[in-house]
C-alpha cells in the first residue's frame, strides 16, 4: 500500500514552489557527521515507563547554528519495522533535536517498500521518505564520478554487492511463483518435523505425546500435545525468514516467540530446536514434570534429521541468495 508523504515545515522541499519545507539551497554540510546505532534516550514523559532501549540505525548530524540538520535513517534490508517503531523514533528525535531547522527521516529498504504503519492516523501520511538500496542508492553510486569508485574501496565493494543483489532480483522474477512457495513450505515443514521429534524426545515415557496436525494428506504448520488437543503450536516464517514457534501457555496467554535464525547450519538448527523444545514445554504446561522426561540429546542423527541435514546445509550455504528469493511474494 502506498501512503502520501507528509510535507512539514521542518523538512526539505521536494519542489521549489510547492509544499512546505526548507530549501536546500545554500545548506552547508561541512561539519556534518554520521553516527551508527545512535541511542535514543527516553523523553521526560517516557522515563517512568519500561520502554526498551532504542537505537536508530544511522543519524546524520550537523547542528550548526542557523542551518542545523538531522537525518535519521532506519535500514530494513531483509525485514520490516515493528509496531510503532518509526512513530517512536520520530517523536523522540523531534523532541530532542527541535533546535535543528531541518529534520528528515529515511526508511531504507531493499526495494523502497512503504513502512508498516499500525495506527490508522499514521497510515494517512508518513513522515519517512522511502529509499531503495537497489534503485536509489545504486543510482547515486552510478552518478558518482568513476574516479571515486576506483579510489574508494568501500564504495567499490558496495557497488559490487548492489550489482549482485540486482542480478539476484532479476533472476527471482524468472522463477515461477509456485516454486518459491514450495521452497518456503518445505523450509517450514522441515522445521516443524524436526521440532516434533525434539518435543517427542523430551516427553518420552511421560503422559501423552506431541504430533503434527494434518488436513487430509496436507501437513499443517501446527503441532499439539495429545493431552491438550485444543491448544496448538504455530510454526511460521517471519518476514526475514526466521523460523518462529509460538503458542499459548497454561493460562491461555500467548507466550513469547521461540525463534531459530534463518541461514544456520543443520547442526546449529538442531541445537537451537533442542533449546526451543525445552522453552516450549516450560511455557506450555502448568506442571512440566508430568510431561517432560530427563533425556539428553542423542549424539547420532536420527533418520529424520539426517534426511533434512542436506536441505538445511544447502539453505545455510546460499542463505543470502535464498533470502532474496524467498522474502518476496
Describe this structure in words.
Helix content is 37%, strand content 22%. The protein has 329 residues and is an alpha/beta fold. It has 2 domains: 140 residues, Trna Endonuclease, Chain: A, domain 1 (3-Layer(aba) Sandwich), CATH 3.40.1350; 150 residues. The strands form 3 sheets. It has a 5-stranded mixed beta sheet. α6 crosses α7 and α7 crosses α8.
Write a brief structural summary.
The chain is of the alpha/beta class and 329 residues long. 37% of the residues lie in helices and 22% in strands. Helix 1 (85-96) links the parallel strand 4 and strand 5 (102-109).
- Flag low-confidence runs: none
User: Which oligomeric state applies?
Assistant: single chain
- Could you tell me how far the N terminus lies from the C terminus, measured between alpha carbons in angstroms? 14 Å
Radius of gyration: 25 Å
Coarse shape = elongated
Number of separate helices: 9
Question: What structural class results from the helix and strand content?
Answer: alpha/beta
- Strand percentage lies at 15-25%
The domain count comes to 2
> How are helices and strands ordered from N to C?
EEEEHEHEEHHHHEEEEEHHH
Give the number of DSSP strands: 12
**Helix content, binned percent:** 25-40%
Strand order of the largest sheet: 2-3-4-5-7
Mean pLDDT: 81
Sheet with the most strands?
5 strands, mixed
